[in-house]
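Fold this sequence, please.
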Amino acid sequence: MSAPRTMLDKLWASHEVLRREDGVSLLWVDRHLVHEGSHHAFAKLAERGLSVAEPALTFAVADHYAPTRNRDRIADPKIARMIETLRNNASDHNIRLFDLSDPSQGIVHVIGPELGLTLPGLLINCGDSHTSTHGAFGALAFGIGATEVAHVLATQTVWQRKPKAMRISVEGRLGFGVTAKDIALNWIAQLGSGGAQGHAIEYAGQTIRDLSMEGRMTLCNLSIEGGARFGMVAPDEITFAYLEGREYAPSGADLQRAQQAWRGLITDEGAVFDREVKLSAADIAPTVTWGTSPEQALPITANIPSPDATDPAKSNSAHEALEYMALRPGQPLDGIPVDQVFIGSCTNGRIEDLREAALVLSGRQARVPGLVAPGSARVKAQAEAEGLDRIFQDAGLEWAASGCSMCVGMNGDVVAEGKRCASSTNRNFRGRQGRGARTHLMSPAMVAAAAVTGKITDVRPLLQGRAA
């Protein structure tokens, strides 16, 4: 009788080709996603005269440098060159490219799931840290560096040391106006940006099982902001319903056989984790970052802490964060003025995210400018079919094309120096949204509330009587 295994154990064993004496495993890669930033890896192949080992398992996406306006005439030569290089690499190696004009284009971690490229039980790599998003489907998904990208391109395998197993269980029902984004920021604030370092997180508990696939993707997406190698959620009926009918997903009898196999991916009863964390959904409120790390976050009802009252090891970074953010200890989070807002990214650019923001903005006027960039061309089309684009535009926000946009600030969409942005993105590091930009992370609904009031504010009063 074999010992009970975690989902991590099962996924790892099913992809392990061999294990070196030092314990590092060679893993088979089922899906390799590349974007403009992968040009270094393709250059390495060219230097060695190598070709892509499995072009049919490799998919290219224009997203990080994708302009959200005037795509037909890209003014910035650097952006144009990056996208053209991706096109050439995809063409040279016979790789399916989701180019700017493709109706399935979008952020790589949005289109993978919506096309059915992301499936339970697969190992998925991409040269992007937020590849962990795909773990929401019960997949083994993690970001890799340029050298590793080249290795996957050439061999369809990756060397990796198995992380420790960590389980974060959340029980109970989320409160009114509380989302998966708040769950993530809450645990990261509690455990710190290195709280899950060296671990793979499995999210469990009734609260997680009640989340939509969009919510689970948000949660897994943010796992790395707490130091985890990646995050995962066991596949279930919600997963299966989401995947049914997707372009690259199995169908008919193949789907039934696949679902039977997917049901076996869950952690066995009695399996042991290296670390267990238990949270109560009732303790989680709409959460906002105040500093320059995702761990520097608090409930909207809180005041900014004094750096001298924090962990001595983090006191200096807290002082520096407050200076950079132009905030003071004791200042209430609720009421901090913002200069602009952004809704989008691979964390919160899906249709559910846009619906939540539109629910707040409907019939109201934004007091500050803002940009809404859907996570994919399909999300954009669906939002327009539902009239969400009109709600955003009637409120005074700009409706743009799909791409990473203002999350990463390398495509023309940036926050000006010294300006404060309420953002639905994943990172609030110095300069992440532009040189000198001040970023406050929060849920899309909270961003919409900030747009309406012109300040960071509790969304719950604005949602009264509007809950869908």
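The chain has a mean pLDDT of 96. The CA atoms of residues 15 and 27 lie 5 Å apart.
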